[in-house]
Amino acid sequence: MTAKSKPLSGRALSSAVLRFMAREDPLVTTLGAFPQLDRARLQRILEKAATLIDGANGEALAEPALSRVRVYSDGAARGNPGLAGAGAVLVEPSGQVVDRIGKFLGTQTNNYAEYMGLLLGLRRARELSVREVEVFADSELMLRQLGGRYQVKSATLRPLYEEALSLLNDFERVKLVHVPREMNRAADEMSNRAIDERL
Questions:
Q1: Per-residue model confidence as pLDDT tens digits over 12-43
Q2: Residue 47 binned pLDDT confidence (cut-offs 50, 70, 90)
Q3: The pTM is what?
Q4: Which is the CATH superfamily of the domain at 68-197?
Q5: Domain definitions of the chain by residue range
Q6: 117 contacts: CB under 8 Å, gap ≥ 6
Q7: Contact between 42 and 30 (Cβ < 8 Å)
Q8: What is the 3-state secondary structure (H, E, C) of 48-116?
Q9: What CA–CA distances, in Å, run from 169 to 22, 116, 131, 146?
């Protein structure tokens, strides 16, 4: 992160602190004080504030466009169904983390949580005007359904599947990759953190 690579001061330090908080800080106390906010909305507020500070400092207001990102997605359910969370981590081709997202889902199945993790990542990629996505997930069922190899028989999963297909069609290029769970730790961590911290 910029704050670690070189000393910052003034407005540059302020915007760097806000961006760090948006991406890394659980912000549990703030979310508890403002129940109308969820983690994603609070993150957007902090990012917007950082952008305004950058603009006051003569820097560009718009987020830099990313042509391609890797979307690591996962879902967790403690019981099936059970308390569930979804998580996604967006990573630039260089390996730099762009964003970490988690969402508490209440009581849901593991497959529902897996789809929600993917949707969180794809929605964020679209917000960033990304043109190409590589999706990495450890759910063979979800990836095979999206690839047309399996039918979606669940009425609960059908709307999630349809939204995922619609989002994927928004990108110029898409690659779906199945990875073992150990290669998807960052997204798994976000999905479990979403449960623990009620993100």
A1: 677 777 777 777 777 777 777 777 777 777 77
A2: confident
A3: 0.69
A4: Ribonuclease H-like superfamily/Ribonuclease H (3.30.420.10)
A5: 2-56, 68-197
A6: 73, 74, 75, 86, 87, 88, 137, 187, 190, 191
A7: yes
A8: HHHHHHHHHCCCCCCCCCCCEEEEEEEEEEEECCEEEEEEEEEECCCCCEEEEEEEEEEEECHHHHHHH
A9: 28, 17, 11, 11
